[in-house]
Amino acid sequence: MTRSEKRGGSSHQPGPRIWLRQSAGAAAPSGGSALHEVKSVGAPFTPDNMASVQNPTMKHLQPQQAWDYLQQHPDALFVDVRMEIESLYVGRPPGVVNVPWYEYPDLTPDAQKFALAVGREASNKVQPVLLICRSGQRTLAAGQALEAAGFTEVINVVHGFEGELDEQFQRSTLSGWRFDGLPWEQM
Q: Which of 1, 39, 69, 106 counts the most CB atoms within 10 A of its CB?
């Protein structure tokens, strides 16, 4: 029995097929302390200041709101910006397209390459794009990169897939897609 079925939901997972593609991406490695310049966005990000980034057009939805939005907008592109290995082994929402914001071994942000990779997945730049990562931080810079590239409807999934760390330094215990009991799958 799936988690959704336990909650009284359906095991049917509407949405686009899952395509996993290693795309050139960009971002600051999570947990790092040095500044990481995000090319073509123009602002340095650290794990400490990413949550305070102010973006006047990017929307921010809680995981349940994001799931509801996806059900109401089946044309939306759902992008997991985590590294491919994170998406495969930690788990991912169904229907998500993996376009890493950065990838091993470089772990170097390149907003332009990321925006081009998302552009290859999107039908056009007015298609809604929902972004999810581990805790909702990488998606802030990734969303800025997409907006700088001309995408008009960018949505950040607040708390991401695993949410924030708890007092025992564990995730998925306080918030996030998985904590909220939303559909997900794992390799």
A: 69
Name all contacts of 50-54 with Cβ < 8 Å and 24+ positions apart. Answer: 50/137, 50/138, 50/140, 50/141, 51/136, 51/137, 51/140, 53/140, 53/141, 53/144
Please check whether residue 14 is in contact with residue 71, taking contact to mean a CB–CB distance below 8 angstroms. Answer: yes
Q: Distances from the Cα of 125 to the Cαs of 74, 148, 152, in angstroms? A: 16, 11, 6
Compute the half-sphere exposure of residue 126: CA atoms within 13 Å on the CB side of its CA: 0
Model confidence at 12: pLDDT above 60: no
How far apart CA 157 and CA 124 sit, in angstroms, is: 21
Confidence (pTM): 0.71
**pLDDT number for residue 24:** 36
Give the model confidence (pLDDT) of 153-169 as tens digits. 999 999 999 998 889 88
Question: What are the angstrom distances between the C-alpha of 41 and each of 53, 69, 99, 110, 153?
Answer: 12, 27, 18, 9, 17
Please give the structure tokens belonging to residue 3.
């988690």
Contact between 162 and 135 under an 8 Å Cβ cutoff? The reply is yes
Residue in 85, 115, 80 with CA at minimum distance from that of residue 99: 80
